[in-house]
Design brief:
The complex is a heterodimer of chains A (370) and B (540). Chain A is α/β, with parallel strands linked by helices. Helix content of chain A is 44%, strand content 11%. Chain A has one domain (2-247, 269-369). In chain A, the strands form 3 sheets. In chain A, strands 1-3-2-4-5 form a 5-stranded parallel sheet. In chain A, strand 4, helix 10 (181-193) and strand 5 (201-204) form a beta-alpha-beta unit. Chain B has helices at 5-15, 24-31, 37-40, 57-70, 121-129, 159-162, 165-168, 204-207, 263-276, 287-294, 298-312, 328-344, 351-354, 357-369, 372-378, 394-413, 449-468, 479-486, 493-504, and strands at residues 20-21, 50-52, 74-77, 93-96, 103-107, 112-115, 133-134, 169-175, 181-184, 219-226, 228-229, 238-239, 246-247, 253-259, 281-284, 318-324, 348-349, 383-393, 425-429, 435-444. In chain B, helix 9 (263-276) packs antiparallel against helix 12 and helix 10 (287-294) crosses helix 15 (372-378). Chain B folds into 5 domains: 5-96, Uridine Diphospho-n-acetylenolpyruvylglucosamine Reductase, domain 2 (2-Layer Sandwich), CATH 3.30.43; 103-229, Uridine Diphospho-n-acetylenolpyruvylglucosamine Reductase, domain 3, CATH 3.30.465; 238-377, Alpha-Beta Plaits (2-Layer Sandwich), CATH 3.30.70; 381-476, Alpha-Beta Plaits (2-Layer Sandwich); 478-540, no CATH class. Classes of the chains: A alpha/beta (370), B alpha+beta (540).
Chain lengths: 370, 540
Amino acid sequence: MALAMLDGRIDYTDKLLEMIYQCQICGGCDVSCKYNRDLELVESIYQLRIKCVEDGQLVPAHMLVIDGLKKEDNMMCSLKSERGKWAEGLEVKDLTREKAEVYFHAGCRYCFDKELWPVVRGAVDLLTGAGFDVGIMGRDEACCGGRSYEIGYQGELTKYAEHTMEMLKTAGAKTLVTPCSDCYHAFKVLYHKIGKKLDLDVLHITEFIDQLLQEGKLKLTRRVPMVVTYHDPCHLGRMGEPWIPWEGVRTKGSGEFILHEPPKEFRRGVHGVYEPPRNILKSIPGLTFVEMVRIKERAWCCGAGGGVIDAFPDFAIWTALERVNEARTTGAEAIVTACPWCKRTLNDAVNESGDSLHIYDIVEILEQAL
Amino acid sequence: MVLERDTYKALEDIVGADNISEEPAILDAYAFQWGAASLTGKLFAPRYEAIALPGSAEEVQAIVKACNKFKVKFKALSTGWGYFNSPGSEGGIQIDLRRMNKILEINEKAMYAAVEPYVISAQLQAELMKRGLTCNVIGAGANTSALPLTALMGCGPTSVSTSYGNRNILGVEWVLPNGEILRLGSLGSGAGWFCGDGPGPSLRGIIRGYKTPLGGLGVFTKAATKVYHWPGTEAVPMEGASPNYTAKLPETFAAHYIIFPSWDKLTEAGYRIGESEIALAFVKLSPWMIAQNLAEDTRAGVQLFSEIRSLTLPKGPSVLVIIGAQSQREFDYKEKVLRRVTSETGGEFLSLVEKDLTIKRRLIWHIVRGTASAREIFRPMVLNTAAFGACDSWEFAINEAVEGAVLKEKYIDAGLVVDDGADNGWGVMYEHGHMGHMDQIVLGDPTNPTAGKGLRGFVDESWQICLEKACGWPQTVMGDKANDLFGPRTSNYHVWARKIKKAFDPNGVSESTHYVTAQEFPEGPAGQGERPDERPPGAG
């Protein structure tokens, strides 16, 4: 389709936009093709959407979301003034006034999805309880810009990357921890991609907790007698693989095929954050961990990514139900995940279908074991 | 072009609004054909007017009847791997069979599997392996249809032990071009899938010979294929990381890349290995192909090709032999036979493969699962065609490789095609026997007009060689012009093909540009008249 557009064979229609924006940009095609091909499939999808935005072509639901982002600095069509409410009553530093070793970035979904507040509050309690010097930005936390980039607004990503860098200058933090996989992907991968690599360690909450467990700084003592399976969030897994910068030219080898000069190392999705969440689950006393068939770089998407949850919620739920059905074949009682977008979509799918599976964020399971 | 509204409505009523489209972007997604470039210089083939996705044979039948009623051409595709899925000119409808994706039956005792057209080989093979069975996976790859009626020739890297399309067909369900449903073989008499020739009507010679009608003679909606013994485990765990996944295979599997001192010795070794029935796979795999298989990207592949070429070039042609056994004793026997044949024909094992178990296992899995061609041919992002490719004796196949390599040197020297070492013949033997296949892969850049001309020129000259030096009926023979050129040298089959086409498709609605049309060309000697020129490339 992109080639047909470039060749001027087709023009924008509602159906074309629907097809372009029904992709979750989960990266599944990218890692599948890169097993055998030297391609950058996801990049084609990004560029196609950037072109759509440049041409003023958007689906209506995304216009609302982006309008909200520009006015309120979040992707949830909510008021910026309410962004810090999730943390009310928590004993945690305010990085707009104080300095702290660890910056905890909650992310738009956690800040405004009240049902998910226990997860993010639990995560902060867990970090402070382990003795870490943690701070948050509260109402001044802003979107990471990752989702808007996926919709095609590359300028918004640059804007929020620069905003984040500026805020972190005064916060004094040496580590950024986030429980949101989308935010992790933006901070870790996309910022680096656009030349705005953050000057501190970026860790997903699962990486941080795994380190604590391995160093003996966190003890899991209570049994959690449950059979669970783990859903790899795309943005933490295959899309969360660190960015590999490459600058060079594409030359013709043997006069015909394309070679990268200097040699290019491809991101094939195998270096995503896969083991930390599994290590955590395997550390929980009494818990039985079972794998689904499609895991790690081959995992099935929850359906929310790329703005699909906003514009095509039915398709997002359909996608999530595919995953729920797969999870059920393992005999698990619950799906554990590590992303608010995954938890929201899987939870909605279970509720809509009447399935008895429980959906947990990994922090919720961990709290049961403490 | 746009379908008449009453036609579109009739089709929509059959498949439902969600399963039909005339959206230009969707039509172009189907029109995009990498293979079109060598023929037309463009990456897009002619567009259909609509795409319909039936969910059952009954829906296919209703579509075909509607096409007859409204005089609209149709062509079905399964997994859509080839330029021949396109129409010869704009218009008509594409019947995309992707919703018909079920494995209908696996019969372990009678050793067959019945499938719908969109079941892919990887899917079927995985299910078969759980039962100690496997199937032929065609050379084009594991993501192509497992229906033994859809591929061009239907041969694959394990054809020495799993045969090929023409001989694997059992019962078939066929929606004729006029909309009737005909069930062939034992299926036609209600006796199940087990036999392609009866009890019941046998029309195997009509639905496919060495090749298929390429969508030009109705729609095949179900078929059974023979399945074969799999000496491995029910499931094969994978180790490592992309792009270097390695299959954890039993110790009773081995891969050997053998270099022979001459084509004659390779021919002799092929016959002896076939007669001894020791090979799970026997593939004439060029240094280019094995290098691309083992390398993790194109650049590494080019470098490795150079290394392997320097080892093999002073010696001669080479093959990859894979052995699989269920017991150590069986494995030892097969290994012993292979080593003796190799020794007595002057062959040498390539140490790069011999010394590294990981490489062996990776090669075995690529070949058995049918993922090799993706790296050998498609990874360098190049245009390709596969010339020659007749079905004949193994000796005949070797001759095609020789002729193809000589011809290609000229094109390499002129800078028209990729320097793949000239001998980039891909060949297999069938059923541990004396029959074989060999096509000559030629590579070029689809965006380079010179490369397109180079590929086209190569195919043209390969035809002349086939005619003048009796190198058989090439796999690139498609469409009226080519069939009229080769028909008179091949028992006038083209005359019969037209009679069949007319009899089965009285309204001429089953789009058959790449097969043969009912049109007669009396205005000149064979091959000289104004005929559509169809030489679509494609491997498999």
